[in-house]
Each structure stands twice: as structure tokens, then as C-alpha cells.
Amino acid sequence: TANPDFYLHHDVYGNWNFAGVPYLDAECEGDFDCGVAVVYGHHLNNGTVFSLLAEYSDQAFAEEHPHILLQTRDWKRVYEVEYAEVNASVPTKRCTFASTGDFRAYLEDGRERADVVLKDESSTRTCALQLVTCSYSTYRNERTVVTATVAEEYR
Asked: What are the angstrom distances between the C-alpha of 50 and each of 2, 98, 135?
């Protein structure tokens, strides 16, 4: 679709749906190996879609839920949560990087800004997942961004 936010209010079949469906950022070029794969989803008051992500602003919750499972038709991946940030402004988003060093510097910059950190050391991995949703803890239009890196992959 020409609208990069189309699935914010449409289901996987293209039908209008208030809840939408989690979707990969258009700049990620259609896969999860692009550097940082950014996935957006709604935080609904009924606890569905990405609502649980807002809980990652709590260190104890994050420590109890350090893994994210993502499955496509071709593979299953277990991601380890590195850090989470609650931001009242638009998060700094990047999907592609000029080098491995550039990618790692981006992760370190995010870790320094993070509200919750689960992994203090820099990851040696070369791709990451960011799950993004609205959170309404302090301001009206905050975003919770959970950043994780691949720990295991099954094909």
C-alpha cells in the first residue's frame, strides 16, 4: 500500500479495523534482517494488540519477561530484550546502517536513553527488533519502544 500507516487501522486482509494489526515499518524493506526491524501496534485499553509492551517501563516486569517470540512462515526467532524506552516525543527510528559499528552505536545511544535496561553490555548481534506502541503513563502521546536482539532462530 502507498500509505505506510495503512495497517494501523486495517486488518491483514485490508479491511478497516480500529485495532489494526502489528506491521513492519515501510523503511524496513520487507524483512526482519534490515538492521532494526521496527514493528508498530496499538495499545488498546482492553489489553490487546501491543498493550502489554507498555509494561516494559517497569524493571521487574521486564526482568520477568526477557524474551519475545516472533514467527513468520519461514522461521521462529527468540529475541532477548535489551532495553525499553518511554518517550514523549517521536522515537528516533533507523532501519538501515552503514556499518556494524554504526548499528552498535545506535543501540548504545538507545541504551543510554532507556528507562529500563536488561543488558548492560553492547550486543555483538547485527540486527534487532523494535516493538513500538503508545503508552499513556505520563503524557498523552508517549511511545514505548522495546528493543531486542536475536538469541535463537529455528527454521
From this structure: 24, 30, 10
